[in-house]
Amino acid sequence: MRDLDNLLEKFNNYLSSLLEYDNSPQHKVIDSMKYSLFSGGKRIRPLLSLITFCEFSEDSLDKILPFAAAIEMIHTYSLIHDDLPAMDDDDFRREKPTNHKVYSEGIAILAGDGLLNMSMEILLRHIENIEDPEDLKRAMRAMKYIYNATGVNGMIGGQTIDISRDVSDYTEDECENMYKLKTGALIKASVVVGGIIAGLDPDNITKLARFGESIGIAYQFEDDLLDEEKDPDSGEINMLLFKDKEDLQNEIIDLTNGAYEALDGLELKEDALKNFAAKLVNRSR
């Protein structure tokens, strides 16, 4: 397994190379895209793709980097739009002014659109240069998985639920379904795409999907615990509206154990995927 810091450095260098447009007449929207893309995000989703790929393949990272970059661009566009006045109307993200506070609401919308569009441009450019027929099929499957996970039946659908109801209208099941779509779908896709590009068969991809889904929900539950510590009176939708802290912690443990069990039978080179997942779901402890 390649060192995690090394993976992160390679990813950030690759991502930076995709936005080198210093002399572009569209510099304002590109600056806005860069502002959010390099604002201190942890790169959780692309790292999940890279780690999964490395667990099952010795091939060059060139095969997975475009997919990891596309995933991070989609995630970042969703955050820009999520912060807009028509959505959550947030002034800060990661202790910095949100994109629309710096570049205006109109430019922020275009920056999000630009990142979503660029994610597809990157993948199509990569796919165009694939010569091996099997690699081409895998790349197309991976691309399809990403955009299914982030469309109206995935991430966008989850955001729709989020802005369509008052907190008092939520049930526990609706809250968990919103989490599965808004947060969990892209985390799950990040893991699955790494497996697809590494060449895993459908049965093993199904195991990775179960792992990714469980970790995605556990990750959001962990966020709920952290948000409660920071601002217990925020009034935002949170699973702690339906469960007490101890019950939610136990559910995170159950989800994490279920995720690990989903990996049984897979020939992992190391435990890097499990170890990374463990860090994600133990941030409040």
Key terms for this structure?
mainly alpha, two-stranded antiparallel ribbon, 12 helices, 2 strands, 68% helix
Summarize the SSE layout with pairings.
Elements: H1 4-17, H2 27-37, H3 44-56, H4 65-82, E1 92-93, E2 96-97, H5 99-103, H6 105-128, H7 133-149, H8 155-164, H9 172-198, H10 202-230, H11 245-262, H12 272-280
Antiparallel strand pairs: 1-2
Helix pairs in contact: 1-3, 2-6, 3-4, 3-9, 3-12, 4-6, 4-9, 7-9, 8-9, 9-10, 10-11
Can you offer a commentary on this structure?
This protein is mainly α. 68% of the residues lie in helices and 1% in strands. The chain is built from twelve helices and two strands; from the N terminus they run H-H-H-H-E-E-H-H-H-H-H-H-H-H. The protein has a two-stranded antiparallel ribbon with strand order 1-2. It has helices spanning 4-17, 27-37, 44-56, 65-82, 99-103, 105-128, 133-149, 155-164, 172-198, 202-230, 245-262, 272-280, and strands at 92-93, 96-97.
Q: Quick summary of this structure?
A:
This protein is mainly α. It contains twelve helices and two strands, in the order ααααββαααααααα. Helices cover 68% and strands 1% of the residues.
**Strand neighbour order, sheet with most strands:** 1-2
The Rg value, from CA coordinates, equals 19 Å
SSE string: HHHHEEHHHHHHHH
Looking at the structure, what is the overall shape?
A: globular
Helix content: 55-70%
